[in-house]
Amino acid sequence: xxxxxxxxxxxxxxxxxxxxxxxxxxxxxxxxxxxxxxxxxxxxxxxxxxxxxxxxxxxxxxxxxxxxxxxxxxxxxxxxxxxxxxxxxxxxxxxxxxxxxxxxxxxxxxxxxxxxxxxxxxxxxxxxxxxxxxxxxxxxxxxxxxxxxxxxxxxxxxxxxxxxxxxxxxxxxxxxxxxxxxxxxxxxxxxxxxxxxxxxxxxxxxxxxxxxxxxxxxxxxxxxxxxxxxxxxxxxxxxxxxxxxxxxxxxxxxxxxxxxxxxxxxxxxxxxxxxxxxxxxxxxxxxxxxxxxxxxxxxxxxxxxxxxxx
Length: 310
Known about the structure:
The protein has 310 residues and is mainly α. It is built from 13 helices and 4 strands. A 4-stranded mixed β-sheet has the order 2-1-3-4. Helix 4 packs across helix 11, helix 7 packs antiparallel against helix 9 and helix 10 runs parallel beside helix 12. About 7% of the residues have low confidence.
């Protein structure tokens, strides 16, 4: 299950939206009775994560970054379609880490979430050392240990602005991708569900789980799922981020992009990327009002993901 919609149960999920003009999310995605009865009798079993591949990345000095991507995208180094993965993919590029991307799933991750890095084996290291993965919460430390640490701001406002990304923007993203019916059918189903199986019942189950997980994540920060409020909070966050960036090239006045830039890019790129195929564009239009954020996204994409990118 994608990291940006991991299933964490929440009793407040029973609440309905305050806005009566929108249908209840639970009613839209209610599971048919026969399907629900089937899984009551035969509940799904979650098996342990797969073992890691017992080999190095196999391409000279390149490391292997396992993330959500397509097979075609992995060959060309395209940005991941998952914001949690894209954040760290961009950060490693900023730090000039040589790596290739490999399509994967959360089930294959040692922590149950993507991305994770499998460092290439140095010539003098043992096989066991070469297969120790680096989870996303340790990637920053790992980069520093390679002598490639990036300059990070000491600005006291850093954590406050990070909260805008982790809560306001992320919650609107979760709703836009998983709970907005047209986007779910056109984007989420194509990227996260269809590749998993050709069995209709399995696909229906995964769809239900993803939507439930997204709803539960949003309701962790609010007693009700108010759609107007989600978009309003995200638009306010975009405005605050735009003000923070101002006329600077990168956030907090840094000469080079850092982790915060990667986090912003992870959302702005995916919202502005026409290849995602968004059908409902409320969140996209809110972002497009801030030209400096649009330019920030274009600058990073051209420099680090373009034909001559790092």
